[in-house]
Structures are given as C-alpha cells and as structure tokens.
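Teaching assistant here, posting this on the class forum so everyone can see the example we discussed in section. The complex has two components, and the goal was to see what a joint structure prediction looks like when all of them are supplied at once.
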Amino acid sequence: MTLWPLALITFKEGIRNKALYGITLIALMLFGATALIATMIPREVGKVSIDMALSTISFTGLLLVFFVGINLMAKDLDKRTIYTVLSRPISRSQYIFGKFLGMALLIIVTMSALSLMAMSAIVLLKATHAEYFGRFSWSLITLAILFNILMLILLSAISFFFASFTTSSFITLVLTIITYIIGQSISSVKALVESSPQEIGITVSPVTLKMVKAAYYLFPNLSLFDIKLQAAHALTVPSSFVMWTIVYGLVYIALAITLAALIFRKKEFP
Amino acid sequence: MRMLASVIVLILAGLLHITSLDKASDSYKMLPQDTDQSFVLPSALIKIAALEFRGLASDVYFLNSMVFIGATQQRKETPRVKEWEWQWLLTVLDTATDLDPYFFDPYYYANAFLPWDAGMVKETNLLLAKGSRHRDWDWMLPFFIGFNKFYFLKNDSEAAEFLMEASRRPGGDPMLASIAARLAYRENRTETAIYFLEQTAKNTEDRNIKERFETRIRALRSILFLESAVAEFKKKYGKIPISIEALVNKNLISQLPRDPYGGTYYLAEGGKVRSTASSELEPYLSPVQKKIRQ
C-alpha cells in the first residue's frame, strides 16, 4: 500500500499545525458557553445543550476543513515541495488519494476528540438538570456526530477537487466556503422557490427556478447530513434515511476525489 | 528611568481607556437609533441563512424574547409593554418555533404572557396548535389551548375537545377528562378556572410566571368564596343582595376578602362578583383586549 505513508505524513502535519490549538480553544470556549446558556433556558435545558454542543462540533469542524485542510493541500504547491514529492515513485493520483486519506484521518481523530468534550458537557448538564432531559438519546447524538464527520469529509473532498485546478489556496478556500453555504441551503431554497415565495414578497423568475434546480443536482446536498434537531429532541430517524444518506455521501466523496485526481494528473506546475 | 516612563504611560493609557469607553458608550446612547424592532425577517429566509445552525438560531430568537420580557419587568410607564412590542414578541416566538417546531419553551412563554397581557388569545392558540401538532407526545400544549378557549374565548365545547386530547397523551392528568366533562355541562366556571390554573402552576418552575398564576388563583378563590356567599344569600332571602357589603351585614361572611390585584369586589348585574381591578379579573379582559373589543 503506497498510500498509507503519505496519509500518515499528512495526518501528522495536520496535527502539528498551530491552527489546531486555536480551533481547540474556540471549541472549549463554545462548550463553556453551552453550559452557561443552557442553564438560562427555563425548561428545555436538554434540547438547548445538545443543540449547542452539536453546533459547536459542526462549527469547529468547518474551521478545521477550511483552515487546516486546505492549507495541507496547498502547502506543497505554494512551497514547491510538490516537486520533491512527485520525484518519488508515486503517481499523481496516488498523491491525491494519499493526501485525502490523511485529511480524512485528521478529521475523524479531531472530531472524535471534540465529540468527547461535547459529550462530557452534555453529561455534566444532564447530571445537574436531570429533570429537563426528558426525551434524550445517546445513539441519536452519536449518529448526528457521525453524519457531521461524513459531511466534513465530503466538504474536504470538494476542497481537493477545487485545489486540483486552482492556482492559489485562497481561491480554493473561497470556492469551498461558497459550496458549503450553497450545499447547506440549497434544499431550503429549492423548497422556497417551488412553493409560494410570493407569500413573503418574493417573485421568482422561471430562469431562477431552473438555476436553482440545476444547482440542486450539481452541489452536494449538505443539509441531509444535519440531524441536530432530531438528535436534540430524540425524534425517530428512519433507518432507510440513514442508509441512503451514507450511500449518497460516500458516492459524492468518490466522485469528487476521482475528478480531483483526473484533473491533477493533467495539471502543469509552474 | 525608561522603564518608569513606560509604566506611567501604560497606567495613563489604561485610565484613558476606561474613561473613553465610558464616554463613548454614554454618547452612543444619544445616537439616533433604529427603534423599529417590529420587523422580523420571514422565517423562510432565516431558515436559509441559518444554514445547519437552525436549532441554534431558534435558541437565540427565544433568548431574545426572554431578554425582552425581563427588560419590561423593570419598566415604570403604563402600559408597560406597547402593542407593537407584543406583536414583535409574537413574531419572534413564531419564528423561533418555525426554526425548531419541537422547541417547547417559546410556546410556553407565549402562553404565559400573550393571552393574559396582550389579549392575543387567538394568535397564541394558533402558535400552540403548531406546537401541539409537532410535539404529539406533549399533553401541556393541548391543555393550554383548551384553557385559553375556556377562560378567554368562553368556548366550552371546543375547550373540552382539547382537554380530552391532552388527557389522552402520556403524562396527561386523567382529571383533565373530568374537567372536560364538567365543561360540557357548563358547571361552575370559577371552580373550573381555579383547577385549571392550579394544574398550570404545578407544572411551572419559573418563579416569576408561577407567582403570576398564584396571584390569579388567590383572586379567583376570593371570587369563588363570594359567589358561594351570594348563592347562600339567594337561598336564604330569595333574591340577590343589593351590594356586596350586604353579605357582611347579614353575617354570611365576616369580612370582604382582599383583592390581590388591589381592587375591591362588587356585585355586577345578575349577582356576578367582579373587581374594580377588572382588567386582571373577570371578565378576564386586559386593557388592550378591551380596546380591541371596542
């Protein structure tokens, strides 16, 4: 397996990144805020603490993908170390796959550590406010975190795709952030323009409607991976939804990363 | 020497920092402010803008409404809360529950303030109906709707339906079904109201809201007490007393109970007991509501 050493190096490089300290600090502060704000809620302390803890995980995960992940990919290109890497007996596609594997590993490990922190915040609040945790399910919280990790890996795959043809990491960052925003909102936007937008004073032209529909199939539907609300209220999540969402996520990741490898093979370095 | 100079500069800058911050934030208050809070973005747009943080956005909107209610408790002017502010509160709570329709607290807050103080009974019931639809395991929301229908709208048959619904849900007191039955026969409204409010107060932890309910229960108990005295008077003398004082004069009661809202009780037409602080009591209308009726 030629991918593994490269993946491991990428992972170690990511773990050593100073930005990770900042991200951990932000996460700790947000978990503190979770405890503070949840106790201000008169009744549904449980819902709010799960909401906030899961949102913190999502948010810090995004910071990880945007500011550590994209840098990992870009550093080789910016610092021209790509020449040394490619002079080794490793193909360009293997380079992309190995890097991506390392990044996925970094996301999984960091997110697991953050989840432990989030869960201890929830455990703490549950111990002190037991009577407000009526509907509660650890398995749904875990599932929400797993979905979130899958979403982050997908987003990271997309950033690899953008990095394969852009010339600067800043452009990759901007494109990835735009994709994230579109991906999270596209299904709501589609629902809005297809239903009755005139009710809230918006008119939609047929062109816009077509564009939204095109975007719906082109961009990843990231809102599928968001089941924070269901986890917070311990609502039932059908197993078919879980299965198909995982399949969708894996297929999209495979598509994005294969395309990235294909483009990267043809890329000319300055 | 140089060290000393930099320490002095630092101390002076520190002092200047504190004064400048105070002065700036004081004069900031004099800036013309955007006072029209009544506009809240439509929830369909907020849903899109909130990305995957919808639940969080809902929490923030709810916290906003809590801060608003807390701030109005300090106000001295009358009416303490303006009509457009109630409208704003309703919109904010509606938005919070659009973002997360399973979130109980916004419904709870809406029910504790809007029907009582703003006279927004129908609007509150619409909001509660959204909650009851989503939280189909929660008996309290149909209970609130039923209470509002009985207490404010005087629609006993519809109230009874919602109470039956509440009694069928897990945790719903089986007694609810018997109130529903009582409503169907239009028996003793005051007693039923007391029972309703006791149920609500029992499930309230917020001290502020609990006190509001307990005051109302005390007022209703006094009314119940006077009503039964009037009934006794009627039985004894075959007619309704001319004034409430007649009850004391004929030794049916030793003294008139105190109205917790600061009014005095009197007899209205048909022998009904009312208070001069009627804005808070039977006929259960707040000033705003009265204005709307007019």
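For the discussion questions: Chain B is about 65% helix and 0% strand. Confidence is low (pLDDT under 50) at residues 279-294 of chain B. Think about how each of these relates to the inputs above.
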